[in-house]
Amino acid sequence: VQLQASGGGLVQAGGSLRLSCAASERTFNNYPMGWFRQAPGKQREFVAAISWGGGYTYYTDSVKGRFTISRDNAKNTMYLQMNSLKPEDTAIYYCAKASGRTYYSYHMYANPDNYDYWGQGTQVTVSS
Fold first, then answer.
1. Which of 86, 79, 65, 93 lies closest to 16 in space, CA to CA?
2. pLDDT value of position 65
3. Is residue 17 a contact partner of residue 82, using CB atoms and an 8 Å limit?
């Protein structure tokens, strides 16, 4: 059971990147998925999450209007389109699978303790 994150890189402020998270099993399609990030010297923080069917999405305030989370269950893949990137977006980005099938609030989606499988992370660096 694996999650493989990819798509990170170095980009100038104002630029865009698209992260992907490929799941090794179709069972991931039945669970919410999320993106978290961790900057040097800081705790891991919630970025975005999506329900198992893709109908509900959640974002931390600092990325609303700039980032878009999506998933293609036919490809066992989740995405994070990041536009208008800022230097403060610099971090290692991790994708994760929720441990429960249905969450009922933003706070449930945003809690990393509610996720049981994590990808290895992909580095995003935004230069000013």
1. 86
2. 98
3. yes
